[in-house]
Specification:
Length: about 300
Amino acid sequence: MYAVKLFVVSHWHSDHIKGASEVAGTCESSYICFSEALLKYEFLALVDVYSGLDQTVLTDRETCGTKEIASIIKTIKERCEQKNADLIYNLLSADKRIFQRQYSNHSVEVWALSPSSESVMNCLAEIGDCKRIAAESPVRRVIPVPTQNHNAAVLLIKVNGESKILLGSDLEETGNPRTGWSAIVQSQNRPQGKSQIFKIPHHGSADAHSHDVWEKMLDSNPIGILTSKVGGRAIPRNSDIKRLKEYTSNLYCTAPPLTKKHKYDPAVEKTIKGVMKNRKPLYGEMGHIQIRFNGNSGAAIGLIAPAKAL
């Protein structure tokens, strides 16, 4: 596939990266981009322990991320050996332009707004803790769930020199002016201007909310895009949607938020309750939200079920 020019791994958590290595391998002409933290010694050592590429191990779902990254790094290495020239990969850090193209009637730029330097250091410290827990058993290796998405890469897409789309990844608000959304809002080195479309971070959860982002980086009543998450803590919650509707009436979600568990036949329910304490759905049907720009006519929204307007 030669039409894709830029492929960005926003971060290495399983719900964002599953299948990424296959995409990277297929898109032969694309630049592959990911956080600079993922090419540091600490993360490469973690990948070496958990990826399972060289040995068969029983792993939990979080190891999907390390296996995908290991495969992507392998793809990059192979391309570097085959090609003499062009940039094959790019490392993401705050306030860095990673893509620029001038076409016949429009221009496009893509900027990384995170991770900040302190976020990278925090990420490496947490990765070091994960690595130390590693080799307790040659049979089962479980990566502790990270406390925060330190290395999440937020992207800004500019069209004809104007900010258009803000992709929030899973970046959280830390309250620290050197990390999270506070670092982005306060940066004087990022492109200024307000975006029309916002991929809302971390499935709309409260820990990723920043009032300043809505006030200082987005148009009034922007288009807000949410992805639903099921399994573990299902988000967005009704309280999240209520909060977000205070900022925009143009809110869309890839699937209706999960508010109640699926009910089976009474006999089946009795059997389930007899063998497990608590159950949560691992996967849910995912819809598709399509946004297209056509000249100066603004954005057109297309939805494929179960995606819906909220």
